[in-house]
Each structure stands twice: as C-alpha cells, then as structure tokens.
Amino acid sequence: MDGRTEAEADELAMQQAKQKAHELAQQGHKAYIIPVGGATPIGSASFVTGFKELKDQLSDVQIDYVVHGSGTAAGLVAGAKAYADDEGATKVLSINVSPKPVEHYQHLVDLGNEALSLLELDARITVDDTHFNQAYFGEGYEIPSDAGTNAIKRLAMTEGILTDPVYTGKAFAGLLDYVATGKIAAGSNVVFWHTGGISALFAEQQMVGKLY
C-alpha cells in the first residue's frame, strides 16, 4: 500500500471516490459511493438478515458463538442482538485481520445501529456487545501469519474447505486458538462465518505452499 497504513489507504480511496462522484454529478449523473469493504448501513443490514437466516436454519440449536473476520462485525453483532432468544444473544467473536484504534469499534456500533434502523428493528447495540481480538493478524493486513497458514492447511486437509491468508485463514486461526485455550468451552455450539476470499489463496500460492 505504498507505505501507507490501512486506515490512510482507506481514507485516500474515499477522498478519490468523493472527487469522482462530484465530477459525475457535474455531468448529471448520480453516483453511489461504497466505502472500502462495503461498510455501509445497507451492507451491514445484509448481515443482520443473514444472521436471522442462520438462526432460522438452526432453529433447534442454541448457537453459543459465531466466529468471523472482523470486517462483518457491525451486521453480525446487530443481528445477534436483534434475534436473541430466551437463552440470550449469541456471542459474536470478531478476529481482527489488521490493527484498529479503539474509536473504530464505536464506528462499527454506529453502523450496526443504522442497519437496525433501516430494517425497522428495535434492538440497539453498544461497544459492550462487541468482542474484538487483535492477537491474530500477525505482522499486519495482507501479510500472511504462520498461525493463519497452518489454519488454512488444517481446514483444507481435514474438511476440504478453503480459506484465504488475508481474512478467513487468520479468523479460523483465532477460532482454533480459542478452542485450544478453553476460551470456547468444550461442547459449545460454534459457527465459523466464512466470508470467502478463496481467490487470494490461488493468486498467492507461495503464501501457503501445497495443501496436500
């Protein structure tokens, strides 16, 4: 990213998008700006409804935890709160794939609440409803970690499910460590929310080597 931090690169991209939108507006067009990662209330609302779909599909199972890469946190945390049952809300464990300042989490909470408003749901979330962990992104965003690479290989060889070195591989490494250290108790019902990214695995094969 030319020596920029992830936050600086995101800010530059947003500035460029706004400039382009302004130019298009001058030409009579209407541009819709989608931030990096699709972090909009509409995008987050899709994960709120996705969480409801998960609950509907597993209606006979008490889901104790959902583990995922942190980019989808706003919608998933909001969905867990909105569709909590008598046993309480599912705990959403968000594994950071890059370093984030503390104020970033309030932004995600605001995004989640905007999504809930769009869907006309009464629930609201606070920072206390979030559970972020910055211990697993390694040296930084888009830089493979040993734990992430090992997690990618383990899941591929045991289950035939492919994850990637930027997002889902690191998130799954976090899940494995949570189980190994007892942070997720034995017997818990856990869903790993797989958000894709598989194309990066084949584009950067040297990151993980052979998976067999």
TrEMBL record:
InterPro entries: ACCD_DCysDesulf (IPR027278), TrpB-like_PALP (IPR001926), TrpB-like_PALP_sf (IPR036052)
Keyword Oxidoreductase: no
Domain Tryptophan synthase beta chain-like PALP, chain residue ranges per copy: 14-196
GO biological processes: alpha-amino acid metabolic process
Similarity comment: family membership: Belongs to the ACC deaminase/D-cysteine desulfhydrase family.
Protein name (database record): Pyridoxal-phosphate dependent enzyme
Keyword field: Pyridoxal phosphate
Keyword match DNA repair: no
